[in-house]
Write a structure and sequence with these properties.
The structure is a single chain. The protein is mainly beta. Helix content is about 15%, strand content about 55%. The protein has one domain. It contains 2 helices and 8 strands, in the order E-E-E-E-E-H-E-E-H-E.
Length: about 110
């Protein structure tokens, strides 16, 4: 694994959300990184064919109280897979409204 620290800010979205890029991580085959927030975890695994971009939707993510959703921008038509904390569904729908996005399908 190789980590390059970054300090870059940039705007995204319709409502001018500022993101801050703090690192770039390069993984070798079968290496995994885990992001955590309290008791919740989110893994990314590098494979020789690409990435497992999320833990199992119907098992590990569910056990960490996340829901997986496919959304689409009404403006750009771009699609995104998002992981939503179950207790933050209200905030998620506000985000969709602010960013002019819609739920295509909950992936459960």
């Amino acid at each position: 694994m190789k980590i390059r620290k970054k300090n870059r800010k940039f705007k995204v979205g319709i409502s001018d959300i500022t993101l801050k890029e703090v690192a770039k991580i390069s993984l070798k085959k079968n290496e995994m990184i885990t992001f955590y927030n309290g008791k919740s975890e989110y893994d990314v695994v590098k494979k020789n064919w690409g990435f497992y971009a999320t833990p199992s939707i119907n098992s590990r993510l569910k056990s960490f109280n996340f829901r997986t959703c496919l959304i689409k921008s009404k403006v750009t038509k771009n699609k995104f897979i998002v992981i939503v904390q179950k207790k933050k569904i209200k905030e998620f729908y506000k985000y969709l409204k602010d960013e002019k996005c819609e739920v295509v399908k909950w992936l459960e």
